[in-house]
Q: What sequence folds into this?
């Protein structure tokens, strides 16, 4: 089947539908392939001439490193107090806000987290935006998340405005920031480029009005327009479960107008809009392009980043969601089939290698017996016990099983946060111990979450910005499940790392606790006319203890390592000889002592392991 591009087939290879169809056609048989299309929703094609459609507000994403002042900037723009409600002053999930300017125009802002764990969320923010405001602290410069934010903006081909924050601090030089940005492809106007840079103090409000004016000016140049009378096309910004409301999701409308009563499909779920509210919690009946609203009425929680499209009816929405679920199952089956084929392929490669080695060995033996070679060939090494591939697979599986696992159930306030926490935990070092995420979900910790965590040995529930009620806490205590609650992402990662370390047994490190130098060796007669050598020694450091292992060194080389059979001072048995004390040392299984030998008293010290 090499002519069909299937040159790695074997008798136990499983064919996909497409491969089976190719084989059938090769033999002149017309295959019947089940259709995999099914009902689906797609956004309308963007018309070439947008000038006939009304202008819309720009969608601006605030990006930058943690603690560089992004949320404080939004705080100043909105004349509100967002930062005070954030845990540790760090934004934990994407927020969308509409800001009214003095001339009546509006700007929709997306505030993205700066912490490294939320890279995927920042990437989605960049792809849903028209303009990126890159906040860089004048006293800190370009940091890791600043670089990531720049890359997301460049990948999304989105124009950038640089906001150099904290310019009110004494001794800062904004020009140095502009020079540093050149290394990452951001060339400001002062440096001969076309990217605007505004020097601001988000805390004091200096330069913020100029920044807003630059955003409006750039949006006018971009001539942002959108259709208002077509089926809705939106993006899910975040989703969560709210008490008394059920599943809710913040969506950013991109095209069309979303109204109460509309039916929208996002990912694996759908929603008949029961109600909507804006960023200040006020109820709204409709939301046009570039407007962010919180939508109620979801059957299940959509995922942050899902495309939300309007359906004509509930029946169509259910069909589309059902079709998507079936496609996911088929995709999972195909992935499983490919993994199985790959594993079988590896087994065949190993077996072929073993057969080739055995054949070469038999040939070499024949050559030896017929005088064609002078040395008898070395038999090729084979895995101990049984034939090669099976043992190799078993030993590999055994090695995998020997790595301790920390089973974790993740619960959070919004889906984007849960996703980011899960991804961050999976990236923790895993050579010695690894995290196994059993399940993720949005909403308070429930008894079913505790049961899920309890299904694994020493399971843990990680709760981010959510709590467990007393009944759930009691269930966790009975099941021996630890519930760890957090509000700040880096605290979560630090605590989970400490938990992983606590479950690793300490390393036993050999430690020399005392040394004695042999002065003279005496031969002592024991009962039954038996003799033994006793090393008359002086302890030169630490203490030599009878209960500890001892090492004998001569000229720096180890001669013996074992137990001390006798330790005496004069004629008295002692448990320990300390520095400056003379003693007689003898070993049950070593007699070759000489004057000048060094006897080391060796102990074991427990050292905590480190993650790798």
A:
């Amino acid at each position: 089947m090499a002519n069909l591009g299937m040159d790695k087939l074997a008798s136990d290879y499983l064919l996909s539908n497409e491969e089976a169809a190719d084989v059938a056609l090769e033999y002149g048989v017309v295959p019947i392939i089940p259709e995999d299309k099914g009902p689906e929703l797609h956004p309308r094609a963007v018309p070439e001439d947008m000038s006939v459609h009304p202008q819309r507000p720009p969608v601006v994403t605030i990006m930058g490193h943690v603690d560089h002042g992004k949320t404080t900037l939004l705080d100043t723009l909105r004349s509100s107090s967002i930062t005070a409600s954030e845990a540790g002053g760090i934004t934990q999930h994407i927020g969308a806000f509409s800001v009214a300017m003095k001339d009546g125009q509006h700007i929709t802002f997306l505030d993205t987290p700066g912490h490294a764990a939320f890279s995927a969320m920042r990437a989605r923010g960049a792809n849903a935006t028209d303009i990126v405001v890159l906040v860089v602290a004048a006293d800190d410069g370009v940091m890791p998340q600043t670089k990531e934010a720049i890359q997301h903006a460049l990948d999304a081909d989105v124009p950038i405005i640089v906001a150099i924050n904290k310019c009110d601090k004494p001794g800062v030089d904004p020009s140095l920031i502009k020079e540093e940005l050149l290394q990452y492809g951001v060339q400001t106007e002062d440096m001969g480029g076309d990217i605007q840079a505004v020097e601001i103090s988000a805390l004091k409000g200096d330069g913020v009005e100029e920044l807003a004016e630059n955003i409006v000016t750039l949006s006018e140049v971009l001539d942002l327009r959108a259709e208002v009378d077509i089926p809705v096309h939106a993006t899910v910004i975040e989703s969560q479960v709210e008490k008394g409301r059920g599943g809710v999701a913040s969506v950013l409308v991109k095209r069309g107008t979303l109204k109460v009563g509309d039916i929208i499909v996002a990912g694996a779920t759908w929603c008949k809009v029961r109600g909507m509210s804006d960023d200040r919690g006020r109820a709204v009946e409709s939301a046009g392009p570039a407007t962010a609203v919180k939508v109620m009425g979801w059957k299940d929680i959509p995922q942050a980043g899902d495309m939300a499209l309007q359906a004509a009816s509930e029946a169509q929405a259910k069909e589309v969601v059902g079709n998507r679920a079936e496609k996911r199952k088929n995709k999972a089956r195909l992935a499983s089939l490919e993994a199985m084929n790959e594993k079988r392929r590896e087994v065949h490669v190993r077996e072929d290698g073993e057969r080739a080695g055995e054949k070469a060995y038999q040939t070499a033996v024949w050559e030896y017996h017929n005088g064609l070679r002078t040395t008898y060939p070395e038999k090729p090494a084979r895995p101990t016990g049984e034939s090669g591939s099976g043992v190799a697979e078993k030993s590999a599986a055994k090695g995998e099983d020997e790595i301790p696992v920390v089973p974790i159930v993740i619960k959070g306030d919004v889906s984007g946060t849960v996703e980011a926490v899960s991804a961050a935990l999976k990236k923790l070092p895993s050579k010695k111990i690894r995290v196994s995420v059993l399940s993720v979900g949005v909403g308070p910790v429930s008894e079913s979450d505790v049961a899920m965590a309890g299904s694994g040995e020493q399971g843990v529930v990680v709760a981010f910005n959510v709590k467990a009620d007393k009944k759930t806490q009691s269930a966790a205590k009975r099941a021996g499940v630890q519930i760890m609650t957090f509000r700040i992402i880096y605290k979560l990662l630090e605590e989970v790392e400490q938990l992983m370390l606590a479950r690793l047994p300490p390393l036993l490190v050999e430690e020399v606790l005392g040394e004695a130098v042999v002065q003279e060796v005496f031969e002592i007669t024991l009962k039954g006319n038996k003799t033994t050598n006793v090393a008359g020694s002086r302890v030169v450091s630490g203490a030599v203890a009878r209960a500890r292992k001892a090492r004998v060194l001569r000229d720096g080389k180890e001669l013996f390592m074992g137990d001390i059979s006798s330790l005496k001072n004069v004629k008295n048995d002692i448990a320990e000889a300390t520095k400056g004390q003379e003693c007689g040392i003898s070993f049950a299984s070593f007699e070759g002592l000489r004057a000048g030998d060094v006897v080391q008293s060796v102990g074991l010290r427990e050292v905590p392991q480190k993650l790798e």
Observations:
- The first helix runs from residue 17 to 26.
- The chain is about 30% helix and 30% strand.
- Residues 384-401 have pLDDT under 50 and may be disordered.
